[in-house]
Each structure stands twice: as C-alpha cells, then as structure tokens.
Design a protein that fits this description.
14 helices, about 30% helix, alpha+beta, globular, 34 strands, 4-stranded mixed sheet
Length: about 575
C-alpha cells in the first residue's frame, strides 16, 4: 500500500500550457458531460499531498506544489480552491464561482509551508514564499470575529459544502484547526528566521484563537462538537473533521483525550474509515457527500489524532482499514470517498484520488512510526508504538533536511519481559540528533535504565494522560548508526485486527471505545455486534486476573449481549477488567 500510494502521487502530475505543472486531484470516468473525475488543480488537495511528499522525502515535488498554490493568490491574499485545466479557454475567475469559494486553503498554505520547513529546513523557499504567506495571514485576519475565530460567512465554506448545515455555520472545528496550525507554524518560522511580521500580532491572535476553540466543547457530550451556528447555538455532533485539530495538539489535554476516544466509536468509524458525521447525528445521510460518507482524507486525521493521544490499538485498526482500501477501485488506487453504511463507492465517486493515497503515507510515517522532523535543529523525534502483534518494522529513506535515514523498530518477547529497540542508520548527509520516546501500554513496568549502543544510560519514565507509559531517552547524535534499546515488562495490549474488507458489507468490527486505568488494573470497554463472540489477541508480560471475559493462553474471548428489545440489531458493549496478579 505504501509503494502503490507513492506511485499514485507520481501518476497525478499534469502540465498545462499557460497554467503550469501541478497535481490533479484525481482521475475517473467523465460519465457523459461531466469532467473526468476531479482532474482539475485543487489548492487544498495539493497542500495535503505536500505533507505526504515530505513524509516520503521528496522536497523537490513539495516545493513545486507550494509554489503553484502561491501562484494562485489574488490581490487580497486569498488562495485559489480549484482551477480547471481549461482556464486558458474561458474566463474562469470572472464567470464561475468556484475558484475562491473555499476558506481553508489560505491558512492551510501557511501551515503546510511551516511543515515543509520542519521537514527540510529550506530557508530559501520560506523566504521566497513568505510574502505570500504574510498576505494569506492578513486575509485570514480580515475574516475574524471578535473571538479571533475565522467566520465561515466571510472566509468561505470549509468542512460542509451542501446539506442541512449549508449557510448555517458561523465557525467550525476543521477551519479553526487549520487556522491554529497556520498561526503556530508562522510563529515558528518567525522565531527561526528574520522575517517581516507586517502589522499582525500573531502571538496574541494565536492565544485568543486557542482559547476560543474551547467554545466547541460540549459538557453534555463530554467532547468537542462540530460548529457554532449563526444563531449562536453549538452543533455538538461527532465528526471526523475534529481529527484535524486533535492531530495538531489543539484543545485542553483532558478534553482533547476524551474527544480522541470518542473518534473510535462505531457510530463514527466504519470498517472502511471514519464518517464525516456519526450515525447518531440528525444530519447523517450515508449517501450524502457532505454529511455521512467516509473520506480517507479525513480518516488520516483521525488516525493521527489517535496516535498523538496514545491510543495505538484504535489507531492501528483504523490504519488497517485504509490499507485494505488500496486497490479497491483499481490497481493500487484508494477511492475519494465511500458510502457511510456499507463498503461501496458511490456511482459518482472518483477511484483515483491523490489525497486519499497521500493519507496512507502520512498515517504510516507520522502515525505508525511516530516520526517528527525538526530539520532546523537536525533532530528526529521518534515516538514509536509497534502494534502488539508486530515484532519488526522498517522505514527507508526518511529525510530531515539534507540527511536521509533508515529506521528499524523491533520487539523481542521473552519470558516475563520484552525488549524494544530502535535502530537509526544515517545513509547520507550530516549527522543527526535522535530523540527516542518509546510508548508502552498502561500497567507496564519500566526501568530507569536503557541502552544506547550497548551501554547503559539513564532514561526518564512517565505516564501519559491516556494511561500509556513513555520512556524518554537522552538525545543522541548519530553520524553512522545507533541502536537504542529498552527492556521492560509490558502491560496488557489488545490487538483489534481488521477483518478482510468485503465489498458491499456493513460494519461488524469489534472496537475499543473506553479505557480506565488505575494503579494495578485497567478496564476496557469494547463494542461489537450484539449476540456475537470475538476472539482477540492479548499480549502481556505481567500475569493478569481477568473478569468479564475468558482468557485462554494469549487470546481474550468476549461475548456481546443482545441488543435491548426483541429482534433488535446493532452494537452492544461489554467491559473487561484486567488486574495485575501478585507475583
């Protein structure tokens, strides 16, 4: 899936006389008089792919996309949403309403320029494009309300193009997540480089916007909602759009964790990805493009949000669902979107969508491997969490500035303990600083000593908000190869294997929707089809007492009760308690 996704991006480049060279969003049949799929230039799609190109170490292609998007900026600073390949044959911006009608591309450009800088440390390109970025920020500022949120009626639509909410949204989590990513990215660029600020107080703006994000919090739902409406009310519906701000570290920690947990419910997650709106929403329509379908593009944000908040079992299950989509509508292709109620693509869906393939690349590199590049500091941060049933993973050719590295993750289980290791090999370029932060399950017992190249070293050990454990190794400079290792007693970890994706099938996968961790115990709440049984792999180096399920060898045997009411169908819940046995 990783290789095919790279191929799909390479196949998407198009050069048009008079317009230039960029990626078309996708390719599909024209079906009569319609355009062939989404074979136009889209600013937002190009920006999404620029992140994927950074993930696979292609700075030249990422530069081309950022320059192309900047070239579409109009005088007031707003950047173009879409550009027909026939723009040279018509009055595209004068006679048609589509070019600038979306609001998220403009702050998205600033956020993606900052991401490019973090990946490659290319000060020359940042200086070249900073005037466009500054104009983009000034345009964003002109759309703000008193609370420093971007107003959708002024900025243009972002999350929802049509449906019951069209024209009713004042501000929403998706656009605010992009705005905050742009502001924090711009502040990082200003701190690192001698760039003009214009007349904007970005520090105060960022603080105010971050505080205003809390207006989306719903005490009743116990999570962030979707939008503030023009009548002042909160649309508290669960949505995959929330994955973007949560994946960027936005939101108060306890609220963000509760919201991330809510992303993994069967109401929001189908076996083939995350729905735009949950099945419990009054807006949900499984066949509607904007209010119920499943987009791999949005699913990527949910995967990254789950990994960021140390919910790896849920994240990996969702990532597997996207890998299963590779080839769904053609060799190596990942579709643009699918129906919300069954694993099928709509009649007008696009089978070859660049941002869908780019989503797989991002989820694997930034989520599964947990890589964060800080090119200006020549530093690689590695927050690794191998899936519980994996023993080995390797990623070749990750780029940080002018340095390329290969990374290997291993886990060797022995009686009563596991050794996790990360090997980093610099294959070209200057030396690199590596900061390894391995994450282990709740109830793990970690020593205060790890090993770097076979030598003992003191490490810091702490507990994350989710209950997971994290070890912090000292930063190590690597010019050739380095191996970092940690031997620990891992606590219980559950594998939620994705079932083979059957075309046209409804969702039936067991999901982990709640986890309560105490001093010596953990309680998992799982959901699955009522009247069904499930057998899930369970790994633990520490002996356990199990209540609420049968535990045989290395498998947890679960039974889900029937739904309430005779003849009812649907998902029900069961809770499993695991307590450490005295040695």
């Amino acid at each position: 899936a990783f290789l095919w996704s790279k191929i799909v991006l390479e196949r998407s480049w198009v050069t048009v006389d008079g317009l230039g060279r960029s990626l078309v969003a996708g390719v599909g049949r024209s079906r009569g008089s319609a355009r062939p799929g989404f074979a136009w230039f889209f600013g937002g799609d190009a920006l999404a792919v620029s992140r994927a190109l950074a993930a696979i170490g292609d700075p030249s292609a990422a530069r081309s996309l950022l320059r192309f998007v900047a070239s579409t900026q109009r005088a007031d600073g707003k950047l173009m949403h879409e550009l027909t390949l026939a723009a040279g044959l018509c009055r595209w911006t004068q006679d048609y309403p589509y070019a600038y009608y979306k609001g998220q591309v403009t702050p998205g450009f600033v956020a993606c320029l900052a991401h490019y800088w973090q990946s490659f440390g290319d000060a020359e390109l940042v200086r070249e494009l900073w005037p466009a970025a500054l104009r983009a920020l000034q345009w964003c500022h002109a759309t703000l309300g008193d609370d420093r949120q971007m107003r959708v009626p002024r900025a243009g639509i972002a999350a929802v193009e049509a449906g019951p909410l069209a024209g009713e949204i004042e501000s929403e989590v998706f656009l605010e997540g992009i705005q905050l990513a742009a502001l924090s990215g711009a502040l990082e660029l200003l701190r690192a480089l001698d760039l003009p600020r214009g007349d904007l107080d970005l520090d105060a703006w960022e603080r105010a916007a971050r505080a205003a994000f809390e207006s989306f919090w719903s005490p009743k739902q116990g999570r962030y909602g979707f939008a503030r409406l023009r009548d002042g009310s909160l649309c508290a519906d669960a949505t995959a759009y929330l994955g973007l701000p949560l994946s960027r570290g936005i939101g108060l920690p306890a609220r963000a964790l509760a919201s991330a947990r809510a992303l993994a419910t069967p109401e929001l997650c189908a076996d083939w990805g995350a729905r735009m709106f949950s099945t419990s929403s009054a807006l949900y329509d499984p066949e509607h493009y904007n209010t119920g379908s499943v987009f791999p593009y949005l699913t990527n944000f949910v995967v990254l949000a789950l990994y960021r908040h140390a919910l790896p079992a849920q994240a990996f299950q969702l990532l597997e669902s996207q890998v299963a989509l590779c080839g769904f509508d053609g060799p190596g292709l990942v579709p643009e979107h699918l129906l919300g109620d069954r694993a099928a693509t709509p009649a007008r869906g696009v089978p070859h969508q660049a941002f869908s393939s780019g989503a797989i690349l991002q989820s694997i590199v930034y989520g599964l491997f947990g890589l964060e590049a800080r090119a200006s500091e020549r530093t690689l941060v590695l927050r690794s969490t191998l899936p519980s049933q994996w023993e080995y993973a390797r990623l070749e050719g990750f780029s940080i500035g002018a340095t390329r590295v290969d990374i290997e993750l291993r886990r060797v289980r022995a009686q009563g303990e596991s050794t996790s290791s990360a090997s980093v090999h610099v294959t070209s370029g200057p030396p690199l600083y590596v900061h390894w932060l391995p994450r282990l399950p709740a109830l793990s017992r970690l020593p205060a000593i790890g090993r770097i190249d076979g030598r003992s070293t003191v490490i810091a050990v702490g507990s994350l908000d989710s209950g997971a454990m994290e070890a912090a190794f000292p930063v190590r400079e690597v010019s050739g190869s380095a191996e970092l290792a940690l031997t620990a007693q891992e606590g219980p970890s559950l594998s939620l294997p994705g079932q083979p994706l059957v075309r046209g099938a409804h969702s039936s996968q067991v999901r982990l929707i709640g986890e309560r961790v105490e001093d010596r115990s953990v309680a998992w709440t799982l959901t699955g089809p009522g009247r069904s049984r499930a057998s899930l792999p369970l790994s633990s180096d520490r002996p356990l007492c199990v209540r609420g399920a049968e535990f045989h060898g290395d498998r947890l045997e679960l039974e889900f009760p029937p739904p309430p009411g005779a003849g009812q169908h649907g998902f029900t819940q069961t809770t499993v308690h695991l307590e450490l046995r005295e040695p």
